[in-house]
Design brief:
Elements: H1 2-9, E1 11-13, H2 15-38, H3 40-46, H4 67-84, H5 88-104, H6 112-124, E2 143-145, H7 146-166, H8 170-175, H9 179-185, H10 191-213, H11 215-235, H12 242-249, H13 270-274, E3 279-280, H14 288-303, H15 315-318, E4 333-344, E5 349-353, H16 361-369, H17 371-387, E6 393-403, E7 409-410
Antiparallel strand pairs: 1-2, 1-3, 4-5, 4-6, 6-7
Helix pairs in contact: 2-4, 4-5, 5-6, 6-7, 7-10, 7-14, 10-11, 11-12, 16-17
Amino acid sequence: MKRIAEILSTQVSSSLLGLFRAFFGACLVYEIFYYFNIGIIAKGLKAPVVLFPYEGFEWVTLLPGKAPELLLFLSLIAAFCIMLGIIYKYAITFFFFTFTYFFLLDKGFYNNHLYLFILLCGLLIFMPADSAYSLSKKNKKSTVPYWTILLLRFQLFVVYFYGGLAKLNHDWIILKEPIKSIFSTQGYTSPMLINFIAYGGLAFDLSIGFLLFWRPTRTIAVLAVLLFNCTNAFLFHDIGVFPFFMMGATMIFFEPNFFEKWLPVISSNNRQKMKTSSIKKNSSNLSNLQKAFIGTYVSLQLLLPFRSLFITSNPNWYGPGQRFSWRMKIQNRVEKELSYAIFDMDSKKILTFDPHTALTSTQINTLIQDPRIIVRFAHFLADDAQHKGIKNVEVKAKVLISYNGRTPQLIIDQDKDLLTVSTNATEVPQWVLPLAEK
C-alpha cells in the first residue's frame, strides 16, 4: 500500500492531462451543440406529458419558463471554458451539475457515453487539468500528481472491460444477438461479418484495457481502438460522439510527456524542468482525504456494475441493474404492439390509450426496455383519469416485443392491474413474464 501511495503521488508532466482536458472540452461543446440541434428542451423535455426521473431523484424537475434554455446556453459557455482552460474550476463544476441535472430529468436520456461524461467531469473537478494547454495565466504548472492520469486510465479501462463482461451471455456468444438482428435491418447478413463483430468485439473489450496499459502492446492496441471505434461509428448510427471520444481519449494511456514532442507545453520552463524524463519523485504524500476519494471512487466503479447479480440473472430482460453497468449494445427490442387500457370500474367502461401520442421516441424506447417505466406511466394515466372524475380505476397494458430476434412476446401479463405491482429496484419484478427462448 505504501508503494502504491508513492506511485500515485509521483509528479509527472502536466502536458497529457492538459491535452486530455482540451479534447474532452471540445467533445462537451459538440454534445451541447447537438442538444440545441435536436431541440432537446422543446421536443424532449417540454413536449411529453410526463418525465421519468430516476428513483430517488423525483425532486429533480424541469425549471419553469425559459430557465432550461438559459441553463443549456450557459453550459455551452462552460464547455468552451473547459476546452480553453479559462476559469477552469468554476466551468467544470458548473458543467458537471448542469449536465447531470439534464441527465436526471428523464430516464429516456440515459446513454452510456453521457454517464461517462458525467463521471469524467466529476473527476476533473478535483484535478489541476488547466496546468497546461490552457489560456489560464494563474494555474500553470509543469507537473501534476500521477494519480490524475491513472484514475482517468482506470475509468476508460472499466468502460471497455465491463462492456466485455456484459457480453458473456448466451445471446451474444451462442445466438450472436443482437448483432445478427441489428445487422439484418441494415442489409448485412454475412455470417463471417457477424462472427467477426460478435467475437472480435468480445475479445476487444476484454483485452484492450490491458493492452493499452502495457507499453510493449500499446501501439497495436491504439490501432485496434481506431479500427474498432471507426467500425462502430459506421455500423451504429445512434451512438453519437462516443466512438470519436473513445478514439481521442486513448491519448491518456501514453506516457505523460509523449505529446510534448509535437505540442510544446504553454509554459516556458516546463520542458526544462522535466527534461527528458516523464516522471519524478514527489516529496509530498497523498492526504488522507485524497486516499479516501480515490479508494471510494475506484471501489464504486468496480462494484456498481455487479449489483444486478444480487437481483436477477438477466437484468437486460427484467430491468433492475441495467443502467450504470456499461451494458452496451447487448439487447435489441423491436416493438410490435404497445397500448394501455384504462378501466372505469364503476361505469364498466374501457378507455384505450396510445402512449406514442404523449411520449417521445426515446421515452417509448425506454418504456419497452424497462418494465418499471411501463408501471410508472400506468400510474400517470390513473392520476389523470382520477382528475377527470374516474374514481375507481385500473390500468393494464399490452406490450409485445421481439427480443434479440426471438418470436414476439409479451413483457408483462396484459391482464394485470399495474397499479397493484411493486417496482422495487432491489428485487426481481414478479409481474414480468419470463423470457421465452424462442
